[in-house]
From TrEMBL:
<protein>
    <recommendedName>
        <fullName>V-type proton ATPase subunit C</fullName>
    </recommendedName>
</protein>
<dbReference type="GO" id="GO:0005765">
    <property type="term" value="C:lysosomal membrane"/>
</dbReference>
<keyword id="KW-0375">Hydrogen ion transport</keyword>
<keyword id="KW-0175">Coiled coil</keyword>
<comment type="function">
    <text>Subunit of the V1 complex of vacuolar(H+)-ATPase (V-ATPase), a multisubunit enzyme composed of a peripheral complex (V1) that hydrolyzes ATP and a membrane integral complex (V0) that translocates protons. V-ATPase is responsible for acidifying and maintaining the pH of intracellular compartments and in some cell types, is targeted to the plasma membrane, where it is responsible for acidifying the extracellular environment. Subunit C is necessary for the assembly of the catalytic sector of the enzyme and is likely to have a specific function in its catalytic activity.</text>
</comment>
<dbReference type="Pfam" id="PF03223">
    <property type="entry name" value="V-ATPase_C"/>
</dbReference>
<comment type="subunit">
    <text>V-ATPase is a heteromultimeric enzyme made up of two complexes: the ATP-hydrolytic V1 complex and the proton translocation V0 complex. The V1 complex consists of three catalytic AB heterodimers that form a heterohexamer, three peripheral stalks each consisting of EG heterodimers, one central rotor including subunits D and F, and the regulatory subunits C and H. The proton translocation complex V0 consists of the proton transport subunit a, a ring of proteolipid subunits c9c'', rotary subunit d, subunits e and f, and two accessory subunits.</text>
</comment>
<dbReference type="GO" id="GO:0046961">
    <property type="term" value="F:proton-transporting ATPase activity, rotational mechanism"/>
</dbReference>
<comment type="similarity">
    <text>Belongs to the V-ATPase C subunit family.</text>
</comment>
<keyword id="KW-0813">Transport</keyword>
<keyword id="KW-0406">Ion transport</keyword>
<dbReference type="InterPro" id="IPR004907">
    <property type="entry name" value="ATPase_V1-cplx_csu"/>
</dbReference>
<dbReference type="InterPro" id="IPR036132">
    <property type="entry name" value="Vac_ATP_synth_c_sf"/>
</dbReference>
<feature type="coiled-coil region">
    <location>
        <begin position="124"/>
        <end position="151"/>
    </location>
</feature>
<dbReference type="GO" id="GO:0000221">
    <property type="term" value="C:vacuolar proton-transporting V-type ATPase, V1 domain"/>
</dbReference>
Length: 380
């Protein structure tokens, strides 16, 4: 299942008791979720943190989803490679979760809890800002390349003609003659071939050749005297023959091809840089995300179970019916909250919703989504 649960319960034997009730029916695989001895602070601080951490949790998950979404976008027609690039600390997501250890270097455990939350918040804000900058630069390069390629493959009325014509299609370096390129709708090609010599005077007989044809139009050349060009354009337009502005220049054609090649090279180079950044910062954000979950478990557990700190945090990977697993957990931990002893677990005690508590059970519970490609509105 694309989710894990992190819960906590008081007592040193909590994991053993959990395994005893979930293993017989193979309801979940359970792991110890290691949270260090964090500084508790005051009750007011803990109460204030519950709401702040809930917002931070949602924010960090949202940035992870943006990173994954953009990874999928830049992969283009290789989206199947997405999952194999979503690694955390050089391992897969499940491996990181089941072996979770608090990162003391990034998030010093002896710092006050609000300070740790602020470190995470600033880190993820910087990643978000960098993502916007890198995405903007790459998307601009990609758009320029797409626009250039669209000009090379679109309608003959708009596309670049340099890759369709050859030097021998033109009369060059003549004092009196010039060659025009004319786009003719396909239903009118026979009309063009019969009548082009008579559109104006001073057209070179049998000078028109069919150069290229697509589903809608055909491209022809025609040679005529320079002095009748404007008249020819006007009368040709009346017959729905469109003269394209084009001057044959080998230097400009070579420069255009060179520009296209450079854009492709720049895009591929930038793609490599951006994708590497996305992989690294998916890992960074996911690590931050799980540390936020750990902070939430710690704060909620202290508020629920009191001091001294004496609870065990545990990671559950549901295997079958989450409903059955939930029933087993409620039965195991029903004594932790007398208000829920009768089983009214769907009613959140008054006031807790303001602290970001969306689901309330006799034990501390938070869900961890590991499929960041799914519905972004799914609750965490």
């Amino acid at each position: 299942m694309p989710e894990f649960w992190v819960i906590s319960a008081p007592g040193p034997q909590a994991l053993e008791k959990l395994n005893a009730v979930t293993k017989p029916n193979n309801l979940s695989v359970n792991y110890k979720f290691h949270i260090p001895d964090l500084k508790v602070g005051t009750l007011d601080t803990l109460v204030g943190l519950t709401d702040d951490l809930a917002k931070l949790d949602t924010y960090v998950e949202g940035i992870i989803r943006k990173i994954v979404s953009y990874m999928e976008e830049v992969l283009e027609d290789q989206k199947e490679m997405l999952s194999e690039n979503l690694h955390v600390n050089n391992g897969d997501v499940n491996q990181y979760l089941t072996r979770f250890q608090w990162d003391m270097a990034k998030y010093p455990a002896r710092q006050p809890l609000p300070s740790i939350a602020e470190i995470i918040n600033k880190q993820v804000q910087q990643i978000e800002a960098d993502l916007k900058q890198k995405a903007s630069a790459y998307n601009s390069l990609k758009t320029n390349l797409q626009n250039l390629e669209r000009k090379q493959t679109g309608s003959l009325l708009l596309r670049s003609l340099g890759d369709l014509v050859k030097k021998e299609h033109f009369v060059l370096d003549s004092e009196y003659l010039t060659t025009l390129l004319v786009v003719v709708p396909n239903p009118l090609t026979k009309d063009w071939e019969k009548s082009y010599e008579n559109i104006t005077s001073m057209i070179v007989p049998r000078s028109s050749q069919k150069i290229f044809s697509d589903n809608e139009h055909t491209l022809y050349n025609v040679t005529l005297f320079k002095k009748v060009v404007e008249e020819f354009k006007t009368k040709a337009r009346e017959k729905k023959f469109i003269v394209r502005d084009f001057t044959y220049s080998e230097e400009q054609l070579a420069a255009g091809k060179s520009h296209h090649a450079k854009l492709k090279m720049d895009k591929n180079r930038q793609l490599s840089v951006v994708f590497r950044w996305l992989k690294i910062n998916f890992s960074e954000c996911f690590v931050a995300y799980i540390h936020v979950k750990a902070l939430r478990v710690f704060v909620e557990s202290v508020l629920r179970y009191g001091l001294p700190v004496n609870f065990q945090a545990m990671l559950l990977q549901p295997l079958k019916s989450t409903k059955k697993l939930r029933e087993v957990l409620n039965k195991l931990y029903h004594n932790l909250d007398s208000s829920l002893a009768a089983g009214a677990i769907d009613d959140i005690p008054g006031g807790l919703t303001s602290f970001g508590v969306e689901e309330y059970y006799p034990y501390v519970y938070f869900k961890i989504n590991v499929d960041m490609c799914d519905d972004p509105n799914k609750k965490a």
